[in-house]
Amino acid sequence: MALFVVGFDSFFWSVDSPRQANVGKTIWDSLEGDLKSRLENLEAEVISCRRCPRLVEWRERVAREKRRAYREEEYWARPVPGFGDGEARVLAVGLAPGAHGSNRTGRMFTGDASGDFLFPALFRAGFADRPKSAAPGDGLALRGLFLTAVCRCAPPENKPAPAEIRNCLPYLEEEIRLLTQIRVIVALGGIAYDALIKLLATPDPFRRPPPFAHGAIWQARKSDGAENALWLVASYHPSRQNTQTGRLTKAMFDRIWRTAAKIARKGE
Q1: Which of 87, 132, 145, 183 has the highest CB neighbour count under 10 A?
Q2: d(CA 199, CA 167)
Q3: Contact between residue 187 and residue 237 where contact means Cβ atoms under 8 Å apart
């Protein structure tokens, strides 16, 4: 497969700390008008959500008890919004914030082993301007890609309940609706893949999605003139369990992002 380096004409911007007052303002400053307002409103709605009592209790308890290595840090301990390029052509969807990762830092895939594997891959593919995501305010910028998750609160044992997934799915659905340039969605893990299938399912019996497998690709929506095609690409989740056992290797992950970039570039 040929290497496609992302060459979107989109812009870069830095992501400041979500602990600031107007959390979404810096992220969406490069956008204008109604889209910017709607994304800011969605972000504020996500952050204030308390729909799932079990998750609210867990995320706040983790923040009080803390891990020894982060004892001096203030945990975010709220739902984590998506972030990235508002004109992205690629949407990456994970499972949920890590208890001592995103639940601590307030930014998706930031501060844990999954992010340590993900961001170097995004950098190699041209989707990120640096290979490390340390904390909000570190200057990291994403280009052509928006990063989000099925669930916005850290779940106990990384296992959200079905009802908790259902409560969160409207946020993901709204992101997909607002990010109108999206052409490819990368599902990071089987739970994300199944949730996206539910959102993107079509009654067309000839376009049934394949079962989850690393590298599986499904055309969720055909181009009909009014709408552009939308593709779903499946990947193993970059969890420590998958990466340390060799189930997901660097080469395997790089192929996913090269595929996403190749599809996204079609029709530019």
Answers
A1: 145
A2: 13
A3: no
Backbone Cα Rg of the chain: 17
Q: Residue 179 contacts by C-beta under 8 Å, 6 or more apart in sequence?
A: 86, 88, 91, 146
Name the β-bridge partners of 149: 94
CATH of the domain spanning 33-203+226-265, picked from 3.40.50.150, 3.40.50.720, 3.60.15.10, 3.40.470.10? 3.40.470.10
SS3 state of residue 186: strand
If you search the block for the tokens 């990947």, which residue do you land on?
A: 235
Enumerate long-range contacts of 194-201, CB under 8 Å, 24 or more apart. Answer: 195/93, 195/150, 195/165, 195/169, 196/93, 196/172, 196/220, 196/232, 197/232, 198/169, 199/169, 199/172, 199/173, 200/230, 200/232
Four-residue CA torsion sign, 193, 120, 122, 15: positive
Query: If we measure between CA atoms, which residue out of 53, 51, 71 comes closest to residue 62?
Result: 71
* The model's pTM: 0.86
Residue 74 CB contacts under 8 Å (≥ 6 apart), including other chains:
19
Tell me how far apart the alpha carbons of residues 263 and 152 are, in angstroms, rounded to a whole number: 27
User: Which of 212, 256, 230, 232 is closest to 118 using CA atoms?
Assistant: 256
How many Cβ atoms sit within 10 Å of the Cβ of residue 221? 15
Domain-wise residue ranges, the chain: 33-203+226-265
Helices (H) and strands (E) in the chain, counts: 8, 6
Query: pLDDT of 139-166, one tens digit each?
Result: 999 999 999 999 999 999 999 999 999 9
